[in-house]
User: Fold this.
Amino acid sequence: MAQAEKLKGYRGIGADVLERYGVGVWSDVEIDSTGGRFEGLILPRSETADDRHIVLKLATGYNVGIAAETIRAIRERGRREAHYKIPEKEFPYDPGKPNVKLLGTGGTIASRLDYRTGAVIPAFSPGELYGSVPELADICNLETEKLFGVFSENMAREQYITLAERIGEEIRAGVDGIVIGHGTDTMHHTAAVLTFMVQNPPIPIVMVGSQRSSDRPSSDAALNLIHAVKAAAEGNIAGVMVCMFGPTSDQYGLLHSGCRVRKMHSSYRSTFRTVGDIPIAMIDRNRIIPLREGYPRRREDHDVTIHAVYDEHVTILYYYPGMRPEIVDAMVDSGHRGIIIAGTGLGHVNKPLYPALRRATDAGVHIFMTVQTLWGYTQMYVYETGREIMELGVTPVANMLPEVAYMKLCWALGQTDDREQVRRIMQTPVADEITAREPYNGYLIYQGGIPEVQDFLRQVHR
Ligand code: ASP
Assistant:
């Protein structure tokens, strides 16, 4: 192998260490460092990475970076080039099966690392998906379309509008279900905004992602995809949902309502939780089991109202003790038209903020109160604080989650600037972003992903 290929992506001190021990990329090595012994495959680095680390792929599938200056010895056990080419197989068509459209936006589920360039490459054609998850063909006829290839922190107004419009076109064209591949980080933001932009859909619109990319042994990509495609193809639940791992093991997935769901753990595969309710359904390879009543049912028509408007001049003010009023003034001065406060407890902020909130509402800024506890309702009549804050023109929005309220206000301000109309839009539920009450067991079950806890609770509440 040419020297340049052997050092692919390595420069400076990283390249020096590899040369010193006569190893290079794709060497299978044991490395002794001051931090311990590591065994694995030396991966190429991306051109933009720093020059101080050697990156190893461990047998577990995890990649680790080892600081070059900590390395005491490297022994080469062999060489092994990793191939991540996905076998392309033609997705079979069966006229007896439902038709599902997969719209890709990016994120881990759509990616495998191309170790040569360090870039993330999509695995998204139907052939690639069929090659890696052949079970999908038992469920439906799948068509895919890559709309964007972004990590989900880069989803914003333009993508939301395009996505909503494409969903509308697919529904009118008669697909039986839609799956949206999306990064998990902001999946709940997109799920919320789609709930508002795509109203009264007749079919399931299922968002899915993965916490671990499909080149890792513990990846959740395939199972989440199978569950999501099943929910889209066969499920009787219409509307925007998120479908991800239920418990920490791969026993089942959960279907969450698009505007009651939240990413709750930065790395667990069972990261999505329904907040303020229990999930809509459990799903495995064989069944979809509803966990609660009161969800919209699939219909035979192809009618849907697409309302793809969005004004991003909105911000979330996450209150903390001692917050200073200049923060609010700065939001107003920088042109924000709406503020969602995530207040403490039942919906509170400190008194020094009051004059600034008054200045903001007088300037025509629309301000709504949510709670940073996430569970529970704003209750602004309980304490004097709450009443006073409402008198400043701040409107509580019950048990709407802060991010959901954020997306809804962006959507509302895309329609009108009229104070009363904005209030009415915010306080009138489109789906279940505001509910009349939390179920008595909502806070407990299907929340921790520990089946024993659920079994225990089932017995207690028999
Ligand atoms: N950062 C990624 C994203 O949200 C993580 C993921 O896909 O799960 O796009």
